[in-house]
Amino acid sequence: MIYDVAVIGAGVIGSMISMELSHYNLSSVLIERFNDVAMGTTKANSAIVHAGFDAMPGTLKAKFNVEGTKLMPGICKTLHVPFKQCGSVVVAFYEEQLKTLQTLYDRGIKNGVPDMEIIGRDKLRELEPHINEIAKGALYAKTAGVVCPYQLAIASAENAVLNGTKVELNYQVEKIDYDENSKIFSICSGDRKIEAKYVINCAGIHSGKVASLIGDNSIEIIFRKGEYMLLDKNQGHLANTVIFQCPSEMGKGILVTKTVDGNVITGPSSIDIGSVDEDLSTNSDVLDSVVEAARLSVPEINTRNVITSFAGLRAHSPTNDFIIGESDVNPSFINVAGIESPGLSAAPAIGVYVKDLIVKKLGVSMKEGYELSRKAPVRFNELTNEQKKELIEKDKRYGRIICRCETVTEGEILDAIHSPIPATDVDGVKRRTRAGMGRCQGGFCGSKVVELLAREHGLKLDDITKFGGNSKLLVGKTK
Amino acid sequence: MLNYDIVVVGGGPAGMAAAVKAKECGVDSILVLERAETLGGILEQCIHTGFGLHYFGEELSGPEYADRFIQQITEKNIEYKTDTMVLEVTADNKVYAVNSTDGLLEIQAKAVILAMGCRERPRGALNTPGTRCAGVMTAGTAQKYVNIDGYMPGKKVVILGSGDIGLIMARRMTLEGAEVKLVCELMPYSSGLTRNIVQCLDDYGIPLELSCTVIRIHGNERLEGVTVAKVDENRRPIKGTERFIECDTLLLSVGLIPENELTREAGIELDPVTSGAVVDESRQTTQPGVFACGNVLHVHDLVDYVTLESYSAGEGAAKYVLGTAPEKRYITTKGVGGVRYIVPQKVNLNAGEDVKLYFRVGRVYKGASVVVKYNGYEIMRRKKPRLAPGEMENVILKESELAKFAEGGLVEISVEE
Q1: Which CATH superfamily is domain A88-142+222-316 in?
Q2: Rounded Cα gap, residues A305 and A153, in angstroms
Q3: Using one digit for the tens of pLDDT, what is the confidence trace for A1-37?
Q4: Among A236, B6, B80, B395, which residue has the fewest nearby CB atoms (within 10 Å)?
């Protein structure tokens, strides 16, 4: 089969573009090198929806950020994705930083950011009682928020699948051929081949390399590494909004916020590590510096309450802007590259923009009666007692708790395993249900999740991986 | 809404012993709620022997020890529900729980006994740098895979931490054909029992390196190795001592954390050192009618002590329900000078019996004395050949002594070298 469109990379950008395309009369495939969607930058970032005052006016970053942030609440509601418009504060800790707040405010006005306000010390302390006493004031932006980035990618990819998009996982794109006569791309991985009329390159940190497969060497991507720490939910009181410090050359600095799930997150560090080694390791000196910086914002942050730390790679382009549009080498090849912060905030708007581009090229119309949403995932621990009762009466499997820390039921895990993009590994179940994300980090439920995965997929326990590939958890039977 | 005199949260050794004792004390209406598929708790996966030496005077395996209590639960017709997770304990001793047969249970209890046990400290809490590959797990998780599921987590193993589960798993993995290359311990002493170091490491030639830790985890998909290094007296890695050990498995035995989420949410006061509730000698918490015992109260090294403590809680809860609990006239206890904590933190002068104070020291002492003071006056001094953080100690306050104390007094235990 020859697809109308192939999207390379199933992060939040590729997934949202696929979803938008799936609402039109065209055929599409979403290609991903890992065992699941949302496995790259999407699963390890700050999970912030930015108001939009950071990027310089006139840049794509500014445009798509402001538009995306406007679309975000509605999209999250429609797709049943956790999102909270908690607002953000950029805090001035020193007198001289107050000027920066004004600069950011003015830039926000130029970018079209609504609902901003420069607030004094008292209002800031009212919003954030645990903020450092030395704080002088802040830029408060009410449209900012927190979202679950991998849920957003999973939900939009699921919606695409429900509307007919094919998902090809474990598909590492190695070669792309273009036939000038038929105007068809052949996207190859080993002896597998996918054919499509249009290709959208959403390959994240590898978008430069994927573009070069058609001879487009214009995109340079540098892996910008960020390390984070996640604190126990019982520290949730430490932050109500997204707490930023005044920005620097390397980004927006160390933030402290409550995630949409109620944990406290702090990070990221920001270190350029070239463009070859996908180094996702954490480092003690870096994490020490993250904590030190975080304590400038919230002095009470204590590493004793850290439940995990992780690293993510952002696709940084030296142009300092997103690269979105037709390749100079081939107009049927669309690059969506250099999507670093505020990429997550921008994702809904980028999805619509790229969809419009393709729909115009193909001249296709909207599908009648397409699926707007996906099946709402059950989140047992958010239900009222009455709802819990009702649910278990309907399906007993929701009465069996598998993950104790996050109160995740067997029913929820089975739903994830049988969802439109089935979870096939332990981390896939974790991202969809939060089983294993709590304070014991899967110590108790990990082996039960392995059992359920094996049972439902008809596999043996030692076939089950943590995140695909060779990440097996067990190495065979005992004697 | 169901009504019970006593609801026991947890059907491990602590919960079972507490339920059995409460029944013996004359309370009939008891319900034990257990989240696992069977009663017995973590003992079910502890197939090694060494349980019950102190209490039964026999060397039992974990399941055998548990079975002694499961039989009593059955014989005494104590009600229990397995596969049942307690979601909430309220300020008026209402218990919300869930399972797949009853759905959501709402139970009004006169007394509640908290016996949820503990969990292992995971990798994330250690902040060990490196990658997040497969092959890193807690020793208890590995124990479940090996002993319950019959699967091996790996073939070449490094164990971080010399807690008892880590030591036991070093032997278990070796018996299953794996090569345990090293057990490394951050502290200059092991937190495990001496008998486990001898029987699980020495007997198998497994090296134990003290003042040593894993400073980096390597491997993209599956673990490929760890870097270990010696640490200085401040537990900081010493430059130049790093070495790489090739392995596919890293087991963590780096501490146990009492599972007090229900306790915390109920608003019950917790002791920051034990991470368990503040209790009196009957193991009653700061919420009237709520008792706590076993590893949820403080981490024990021997199940035998868990049993004894749980008897106290069971008896306390029964007296509370029957209205025979003595009037409260408390003194407080406090660990000072080398003693990290004491349980119970309060003692009722009207207890009407000898009271055992359990405590742990902060480091290894040789030939030191345990000193007990009442309001600053020394009332007891005992020389000990060896004191170690891994071995829980106790002193007894005699009933006759308690009679001499005044309400509001302070009993301190310290170590003097």
Answers
A1: D-Amino Acid Oxidase, subunit A, domain 2 (3.30.9.10)
A2: 29
A3: 999 999 999 999 999 999 999 999 999 999 999 999 9
A4: A236
